[in-house]
Amino acid sequence: MLKSFKLRNLDVFPNTILSPMDGVTDAPFRRLCRVLSKNRMGLLVSEFVPTDGDAVFCLDGHKQLKFFPEERPFGVQIFGRFPDRMAAAAKKIAENLHPEFIEVNAGCPAPKVAGKGSGSGLLRDLPRLQEILHDVRAALDASRVDIPLTLKCRIGWDDESINVMETLKIAEGEGVEILTVHGRTRLQGYNGLANWEWIGKVAAAAKIPVIGNGDVNSVATARERLETYGVSGVSIGRGAMHNPWIFGQIADAWEGKPEHQISAEETLDVFPLYYKFKLEDGSSEMGALGRLKQLAARLCKGFDDPEMQVRQTLLTAQNPEEFFERLDLLKNGIAKSMRYDPNRLVNLNGAKDTELKFGDQFAGR
Ligand SMILES: Cc1cc2nc3c(=O)[nH]c(=O)nc-3n(C[C@H](O)[C@H](O)[C@H](O)COP(=O)(O)O)c2cc1C
């Protein structure tokens, strides 16, 4: 099993990527994952940056572009449907911010993105995707910095039009240097399970590193996906919200260290840390509270707490003071003796195994 992969002369170890998640993986969330993993994350990527709206791409208007030197190697992900706008944005970002790579998004399923032909909408128009990749690569070549271009895609629009092998061919032809494949169709949205058989087929056929994405939520699933499907690395999204230690746990396992058991106390201590990071990043207190609750909704599933009391107690707090008062009460009360296991969750959709099916979240939209 490979434990690292190459991005040009960069050795990416461990072979993990924090999947970009709009509204989640901003600089404070990435900092949280970095601190908890003791800085052992393979690659970090920005939330996706829109390019369609700007006749002239303006760096100032996009908060997603903020990243810190210690986050390197760092990539900026852009999305759009106009090749010239994508290319101009890529060049400006590369020349001014010097990320390690620029990534094109061909995966977003949201109707307001995919419905307009951006994100996974590009999978219904591969010639356009090709033109975008071509023009972005040419713009990077013409820029003062020569950095890699990467692509993130889904396996296709729906079950009847799975075209990820064509996407791979186009990507390789246009000089893409890493392909991340989220093993769902656009129609699925985030429902059902990712189809790793397709990811494996792409990895077997590819000349470039292929990163597999979908439902990786533990060291065991990361190992199993890497061993079974021949991918060069795994990209982890919602799994990091359930378990922000996951990158450190994988790094520990790859380094041959024993698994660190996360305690209930350690889990609850994540909240003041995350709150501090949000405020230091300029968030309002209520804005930061929203993010605390977003994290609590997923993180707290790891408690042995059938009634979900810990989760409910935190989610119903009206303001930060109340949230932290309740947190202290939990720490010294019911949560004190609870067992915590981030791997307790069944799957990242929150559905029980018996309810899992290949869904069609975006049918008709
Ligand atoms: C709230 C949310 C926002 C997302 N935003 C982005 C994004 O900006 N760019 C992107 O490529 N994927 C985005 N994704 C998709 C994830 O990166 C990832 O492909 C998907 O969640 C499957 O991986 P997982 O099962 O590890 O979560 C988003 C997913 C979620 C849940």
Query: Mind telling me which CATH architecture of the largest domain this is?
Result: Alpha-Beta Barrel
Task: Describe the global form.
Answer: globular
Strand residue content: 5-15%
Which small molecules are bound?
flavin mononucleotide
Number of helices: 14
Number of domains: 2
Specify the biggest β-sheet: 8 strands, parallel, barrel
Assigned CATH superfamily of the largest domain: Aldolase class I
Under CATH, the topology of the largest domain can be stated as TIM Barrel
- Strand arrangement across the biggest beta sheet: 3-4-6-7-8-9-10-11
H/E series: EEEHEEEHEHHEHEHEHEHHHHHHH
Taking all Cα atoms into account, the compactness measure Rg is 20 Å
Summarize the structure.
Helix content is 39%, strand content 14%. By secondary structure, it is of the alpha/beta class. The protein folds into 2 domains: 5-254, TIM Barrel, CATH 3.20.20; 264-340.
